[in-house]
Structures are given as C-alpha cells and as structure tokens.
Amino acid sequence: MALISQTASLYYAARKTQILHVEGNLEEGQKRWRSVIVNARPPSEAAAVSTDPLTKEDLIGYFASGCKPKENWRIGIEHERFGFDLKTLRPMKYEQIAELLNGIAERFGWDKIFEGDNVIALKQGNQSIALEPGGQFEHSGAPLETLHQIHAEVDSHLYQVQSVLKEIGIGLLDIGYQPKWEIKDIPLMPKERYQVFLNYMPKVGSRGIDSMFRTCSVQVNLDFSSETDMIRKLRASLALQPVRIMMPCFWCKICLFRCP
C-alpha cells in the first residue's frame, strides 16, 4: 500500500508459510474455529524454479506496481507501545499480554490469531493488534481516507485497550526507547520467527537485539501516484523525522533516550 508496506512485502513474500488458527466470536457468544494459511502471495511455478538474481529493473517494477491514482490514495498508521506492570514497573510477561489480548477480543469482538497454543495477535476487519519480540504492543490501522478517520480509529483503539488494562494492572508507555530495563530483563514473545531473529541478529551487527527488544516506533503508510510523488513524500518524511524526535526534549526538558 505504501512506501513502508511495499518494502516490507519484499521480505514477507520470502517467508515460509505458517499455519495459524483464528478464533472468532459469534453474536450468540458461541465460538467458531478456522485455520488460516498466512502467505504474502501464492508461489508461482516461475518463482519456484528461477535462480536468476533480482535486478534493478525488478525492484523498480515492484515499486511501480504500487502506483495509484489520487482518488484511491489511503493513509495507514502503525504505532507501538511498551507495556509494563504497574506494581513492579517491569516489562509485561507473555501471560499478562495474553490476558490483555483475550480481554480485548472477548469484549470488543476481535478475532484471535494463534501460533500453537499461544494467542499472538488480534484481527478485526483491516485492523490488527500484534506483538513485537519484546512484547511491544502494536496496533496496525486500516487504510483510511483522512486524518480525521485516523484520529477516530486511534481513539477507539485506545479506549478498548485502556478499558482492559486498568482491570489487570498494566500500563502502556508511549516512548521510542526502553528507559529502564536491559535486554536480559525483557521476555521473548512465543513466536518462532523471533527466536530466529534472536539467533541471527548478533551475526550482522551489535544493535539488532536492542532494536528488537527495546524500541518502539510510529509508522505512516502513504500511497503514491508516481516515482516523483513517492520521492517527494519520502524526502518530506525524512526531513520531518528529526524535528519530531526532538519534540519530547523541548516539551519535557529532559532527554528520554538512554544508550545501553
């Protein structure tokens, strides 16, 4: 859909298919079960036998395929938050996150997504709630037409989350970097691919695991009509990011980033 979504699809298209289970709530309170095969796109015969490396033209063509006329443009956002125990201030354990996900699903009609016996995400229409490796709580919004719709969607999400949080003693922190706990203090979420990441990251750099466990972000997905339009929007976003990152320091008179 967007600059970020197009890039991410290149990665997820290469991932192996996973079998997940989705539990939904019927109006009568009964439950239905169905299996969902998650795959970015069905494999083609050409893809199965091709050994040719990707070319520059392949990459350009992929992004060009995402161009849309202005009347079809949409905006989508993703935002992550750190969860913590209000009594101990320690990061949420998976058991607490599962309680939170179950509470939201049962109260507000979200479908549950499982990996094995563990609930790892929720889905409702084009929205989803998922977990990052260190338990960061992520809301991925639907593609919407206006900022007013985005605002209403975020307000609804926060209302649902807060109504369950206050009952289980959990708080959420809107911040980009974990200010207190070290990696060893943060539990790994029970998703198979996160264990793969944990084993791989130290082989390619020194801060990959920090990024996995100790960071949160806000992501904005924007449609584009052409290469020129995409470049213009990307440059504008890159110019705005440093200004936005510095805003907490101006407002709070304190630097919230702490290097490990």
TrEMBL record:
One of its GO terms (biological process) is glutathione biosynthetic process. One of its GO terms (molecular function) is glutamate-cysteine ligase activity. The keyword Ligase applies. Coiled coil: none annotated. Gene3D superfamilies: 3.30.590.20. It comes from the Eukaryota. It is an enzyme of class 6 (ligase). Pfam families: GCS2. This is glutamate--cysteine ligase. It comes from Malus baccata (Siberian crab apple). The lineage of its organism: Eukaryota, Viridiplantae, Streptophyta, Embryophyta, Tracheophyta.
